[in-house]
Amino acid sequence: MNVLLLYLLFLKATLTSFSGPSSLPMVRNDFVVHRHVLSDRELNIAMVAGRAGPGPNGLYLVSVGYFIDGVPGAIAGALALITPAFLILPMMRWLRRSASHPRLRGAIRAVVLASVGLVLATALPLARDAVTGAVPLGIVVATFLLLSFTMVESAWVMLGAAALGLAVKLGT
Amino acid sequence: MPAPTAHPPTLARLTRVFLRIGNTTFGGGNPTMAALRREFVDREQWLSEEDFALAYSLARVTPGTSVIAFCAASGAKILGVAGAISGVLSETAPSAAAAVLLTWGYERWGTNPFVRAAMAGTAAAVVGIILSSAWILMRPYFTAKIGKAGRNRTLVQAAGATILIAAAFIGAWRFGFTPVPVIGLAVLVGLLWKDDPQ
Fold this sequence. Notes:
Number of strands of chain B: 0
Number of strands of chain A: 0
Radius of gyration of chain A: 18 Å
Helix content of chain B: over 70%
Oligomer: heterodimer
Number of domains of chain B: 3
Shape of chain A: globular
Structural class of chain A: mainly alpha
Number of helices of chain B: 7
Largest interface: A-B, 110 and 102 residues
Number of helices of chain A: 8
């Protein structure tokens, strides 16, 4: 896949989202459903790679880019991740007051809420892939509770889930 | 509060702070921005309280990942365009390289049965992570802490939020709507459904 096209598709996803995982529905739609250059399994691995260490949300794009086109793809993902950030420089000049404008706040609130619906719809196919029995279901519930209601780092949760997966394998 | 040290800002010093905080603080954007505030506002005094507040609030309305936009804004306030580039690259490049290494490792050893078993565990954790991010995104619209006078407003907001989330979910899941028209429609709805500051 052409690296420039890859960058532009990633950029479409980052420019229309307001937090790391809300770009996920667009990425899945473009690369898994539409162009078939990525599998749900690889998308899932990319989420692991993006959340296994410190650093900003949205790093999974780098890993998705690597799956599709190696190092150039990873660079395309990283560039698309950082490009929208520079929009804040003109905004600091011109939007000093508009950040609290009721209509702008309303538009952003609606985009965030619609993203939640889209993210939930994206979780379904990934869940079908990953939840194959009682242990994975337990991991889903435990991860949700730990990350929503405690301060535990996602890297520890990921490590614990990997250890559980291994334990199940060794136990059978 | 850390004691002020007040070194004059140089590109090397600024980059060191971004590298140290940006790549060692777990937990996403908010803890990272809080740690950078300690360094920039309290310790080094490179950034005023007002400039921090402006960078923080604008970062939340900038598309993409908030903390990267925050690094661009605070870097620019301290050292201009060079500071912005330093902030964005220091925050992203090392952890992006780590993500590439992990992906490469998976491609190399991904067929090993033990690696596969461990990955099956993390695949389930990812579903939990996605559900938790959805919850964290929607939580503020359901748990606004306001006085008695505002209770009806909170209820109206929660009802509106539920309808929007459900509409987007059903549109995508049942009717196969792609994200762009859903986001576009949401912008139109949001322009009509104003969010008045409390």
